Amino acid sequence: MHVFTDPKNFDAYLSGFLWILKLTGASAVFALLLGVLLAGMRVSPVPVLRGFGAAWVNIFRNTPLTLVIFFCYFGLYSTLGLSLSQELDLNRYWLGVIGLSVYTAAFVCEAVRSGINTVPTGQAEAARAIGLSFAQTLRIVVLPQAARSVIAPFGSVLIALCKNATIVGTIGLMESSNVMKDLINSNGDAVIPIFLVIAGTFAALLIPTGYLFGWLANRLAVKR
Amino acid sequence: MATGEPLIVLDSVNKWYGPLHVLDDVSLSVDRGEVVVVIGPSGSGKSTLCRTINRLEPINSGTITFDGQELPAEGRALAKLRSEVGMVFQSFNLFAHKTILENVTLGPIKVRGEKPAAARERGLALLDRVGIANQADKFPAQLSGGQQQRVAIARALAMQPKAMLFDEPTSALDPEMVGEVLDVMTSLAREGMTMVVVTHEMGFARHAANRVIFMADGKLVEDAAPTDFFANPRSERARDFLSKILTH
């Protein structure tokens, strides 16, 4: 464990996971908003919106995340000149958040849509029958019930998002897996311990997350 | 409200589910204050007919007019029209995540913009009327089927509708709960509510209906006063149907 007792390495390790948490946090918020919006589009009566939602899901769910992140960096930034911060790391961070958000939104959308499908059609019919608009029906009657059945799948999406955040390392952000690569390069004698510490940190973050979401899903279930 | 003028008018309505002709050139007029009971064998299109009146089922051709206005396409105008037509479903469809009282006040507050306190007061009065005021803070799953259906009627009445549609309101109920729901419907009919009722309850048809409509294979086969219909059905199809349900 001599690698992590060195304060320089330990700082790198901490700041690596701090980036992961920041990437996960910001992307989770954006992906959630975007994903719910896309799910609304996919169940809407407007064909153009349905088509847009379906296209989004098909494109981003079936493209490797590495490509999406690369496109954000080399396409949006290097080629099209979209710069989100003067600071190099922050620019990479925000480009990473964009990539992770648009990608994860596709999975959130499908989780929400399957949640909507667990709400009996009679609920939406009753809502329309008393004169609620499509948006009100979705917001007041369908989504609150769908949300409760979507909690458990959301846990899985969030866990995947946290692990996927390591891919932002490929565009140069010093997140955990990039830190790990550097540590291994300079400490060839401690490859296995370094792996175990990084993997163990992910597990320590994510196993409780899984249990938390399982517990919430049970607690908030709608009785029928 | 004047009685005797048509409130709901269906003119040559056709609807297909793929190759299946579920509504075959159906024309029907329901006057204000009239109670029309629709009966017929399963698959005859009677539920579909009921659901076309507030456009939960769109039609392929023909016209449906409610209170002098043709049913608008999906959108704000249709939502407004639906708010004026109460609907009661076979499977109750109470909002599962809302309390009984919230089920009844949701429409008045969100659609009509009523003040929550006023909507609450009227909601409680309606629940009292259907005999479940003491359950106001429970959730739908905690009530019996008969109680849920009475809440569903109160929810529809809370919008002060011009007409009420009942789509087999007692078909999903245990036999001992049918009476309590029919009692509420009978009292509504007496008060002059315009009602279209799809049902298998022949007793209700006899004593509460002004007219009985008999449907078979998507066609409107007979349209008669209940006494005439039950005593002298004109069509072979209706005679056959009645002989099957009335001999037991």
UniProtKB/TrEMBL annotation, chain A:
TM region(s), chain numbering: 12-38, 59-80, 92-112, 150-174, 194-217
Membrane topology note: Multi-pass membrane protein
NCBIfam families tied to this protein: HEQRo_perm_3TM (TIGR01726)
Annotated family: Belongs to the binding-protein-dependent transport system permease family. HisMQ subfamily.
Stored Gene3D superfamilies: MetI-like
One BP term from GO: amino acid transport
Record bears the keyword Ubl conjugation: no
Compartments, as annotated in UniProt: Cell membrane
Pfam family, one: BPD_transp_1
UniProt-recorded Gene Ontology molecular function terms: transmembrane transporter activity
Species: Micromonospora sonchi
Keywords from the UniProt entry: Amino-acid transport, Cell membrane, Membrane, Transmembrane, Transmembrane helix, Transport
InterPro entries recorded: AA_ABC_transptr_permease_3TM, ArtM/GltK/GlnP/TcyL/YhdX-like, MetI-like, MetI-like_sf
All residue ranges annotated as the ABC transmembrane type-1 domain in the record: 17-213
Name of the protein in its database record: Glutamate ABC transporter, permease
GO cellular component terms attached to this protein's record: ATP-binding cassette (ABC) transporter complex
